[in-house]
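I have been asked to look over a protein record a colleague put together. Thanks in advance; the entry in question is below.
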Amino acid sequence: MNVPEVEVRAVPGDAFLLDVREPEEWQAGHAPAAAHIPLMQLPQRLDEVPTDVPVYVICRSGHRSAHATAWLNRNGRDATNVEGGMQAWAAAGREMTAENGGEPYVA
């Protein structure tokens, strides 16, 4: 699959970041400003994804988000996959938060 990708350090701080992981993964740890739409819900929730700004798509390792990126681009969005996903995000020391108030981690 050939989709546009960007390294985690190159994702702008004010980017529209779309996390497509499952709810339990999201709750364990995510980027504070990210929007959350699990991959399987994306077709039904497409209207929640903006058309007027670039969309950076992230999952755990980059595989699911690559599929979401390709689909979003076919459906009128300007989407880019975040290479390495939340594993790379955490390794790069980018800010994370957890829903339970505990220490965030990549599930």
